[in-house]
Design goal:
Blueprint (H helix, E strand, L loop, with lengths): L5 H10 L8 E7 L4 E7 L2 E6 L2 E7 L26 E5 L5 H9 L4 E6 L2 H10 L8 E5 L2 H7 L4 E6 L3 E3 L2 E3 L7 H9 L1 E12 L7 H12 L4 E6 L5 E7 L7 H13 L8 H5 L23 H5 L4
Parallel strand pairs: 5-6, 5-8, 6-7, 8-11
Antiparallel strand pairs: 1-2, 2-3, 3-4, 9-10, 11-13, 12-13
Length: 303
């Protein structure tokens, strides 16, 4: 794993602001990828990229205060109850990584993050601690997958950049070719979980429908878990030819909880967001390819 360069750390140290009792901005820096701010307010620490809120964390308890959508990555257990090797593309403030270290200390979670400054912030301000079961690689996520020979029980996608319509997914991480590459790195029962800032209606419906349709062009089954506290929808893709029904997933959840393989407090509650039906605009949606992936353009249209 490569370390942040000395100039990054020097800039970071030089831009740290004094933390006062009333809170406010405690860190601010501009990296080659983001304008980064860490903000403390009313006991909650927030990570902001270019004005968009990326991560929340309770200052009193780092396992609390996070955005709800991060808990939907845990739904991967419903399709693969033997998770051992997990890859996550996108670090942010490390909400998912912290949770996996706490609730599943035997699961290896590798993370790929392109921005060294984000890794510095995650370490210094969001309690991300690398260990034998948490490794961070500073690299582009697709490049990392292309060079890797490993297969994973789950791949989690939560990588965003900023554009004219706010946060959007980097084009090369949302194409049919990318999903084909990701599928090749999944085990037989492997799960691909993808966070999309989108909605079922309105201006962000187009991006949700296009990501869904593109995933479905590669993976036989795709399910949706819309968040209740933000415009985030986590898509779950599997290699199975058989479609899962809510009742069977509920039974699996009960078994995981009974065996105490899962101790996440809201695990069963999150299952009730499960949707098997595709978004209504999927027939009009674009399948993104390396040659044609108008991600930011889709964000500006209403299907």
């Amino acid at each position: 794993m490569r370390r942040p360069s000395e100039w990054v750390l020097a800039v970071a140290a030089g831009l740290v602001l004094a933390h006062t009792a009333c809170g406010g901005t405690v860190f601010e820096a501009t990296s080659p990828y983001h304008h980064i701010r860490v903000i403390d307010e009313r006991g909650v620490r927030t990570l902001s990229f270019d004005g968009s809120m990326e991560t929340r964390m309770s200052l009193a308890d780092p396992l609390q205060g996070h955005f709800q959508y991060t808990e939907y990555f845990h739904m991967a257990w419903l399709w693969n109850d033997s998770l051992a090797q997990v890859l996550m593309i996108g670090l942010g403030g490390g909400s998912t990584q912290r949770a996996f270290q706490h609730y599943y200390p035997d699961v290896m979670i590798e993370t790929v993050e392109i921005d060294p400054s984000v890794l510095h912030v995650a370490r210094e301000y969001f309690h991300v601690k690398e260990s034998p079961t948490l490794k961070v690689h500073l690299e582009d996520g697709r490049v990392y997958l292309r060079r890797s020979q490993k297969k994973y029980d789950a791949i989690f996608m939560d990588a965003y950049t900023e554009g004219r319509y706010g946060s959007f997914i980097p084009h090369h991480l949302v194409t049919k070719e990318f999903f084909t590459l990701a599928s090749q790195h999944l085990t037989t029962n492997g799960v691909l979980a993808y966070n999309v800032i989108g909605s079922f209606q309105g201006p962000r419906a187009g991006i949700l429908c296009s990501v869904y349709k593109t995933m479905k062009s590669v993976l036989p089954q795709v399910y949706l878990f819309p968040s209740g506290d933000s415009e985030n929808v986590v898509l779950i893709g599997t290699k199975s030819a058989q479609r899962s029904a809510f009742n069977s997933l509920h039974q699996r959840a009960s078994s995981l909880l009974t065996r105490k393989r899962i101790t996440l407090p809201n695990f069963r509650t999150r299952l009730y967001s499960f949707r098997v039906e595709p978004p209504s605009c999927v027939n009009q949606a674009t399948i993104f390819t390396d040659d044609f992936a108008p991600v930011d353009g889709v964000l500006g249209t209403v299907p």
